[in-house]
Amino acid sequence: MNFVAFERAKQGTGASRRLRNSGRTPGIVYGGTAEAQAIELVKIEGLSVAEAASASGQSESLIKVNIHRGLKRLAAIVE
Fold it and tell me: Virtual CA dihedral for 10, 57, 42, 21, nearest 10 degrees?
């Protein structure tokens, strides 16, 4: 599955429940020496650019830029 991750400001049970009810997935990123970061994930697999923009709250242009950047990073890893 493909997701887009966003930093989220609100934490806690109520905030997580509201995210799940809106079709998003709450999460926490742990690692290294940095503090844990609350995130929200939006599933974009199988969606058109317009649908992904609507689901993530981003513009269609930003979705296209993020896809391009992701493909560029993936190509650099594979090479």
Answer: 60
Going across the sheet that includes 3-7, the strands are 3-7, 37-43, 25-29
Beta strands 37-43 and 3-7, pairing class:
antiparallel
pLDDT digits (tens, 9 = 90+) for 4-60: 777 888 889 999 998 888 878 888 888 777 788 888 877 777 778 888 888 778 898
Which DSSP letter does residue 59 get? -
Q: Tell if the pTM clears 0.70, that is, is over it.
A: no
Inter-residue contact 40 to 8 (CB < 8 Å): yes
**Spatial contact of 14 and 2, defined as CB atoms under 8 Å apart:** no
**Which is nearest to 63 in space by CA: 75, 47, 78?**
47
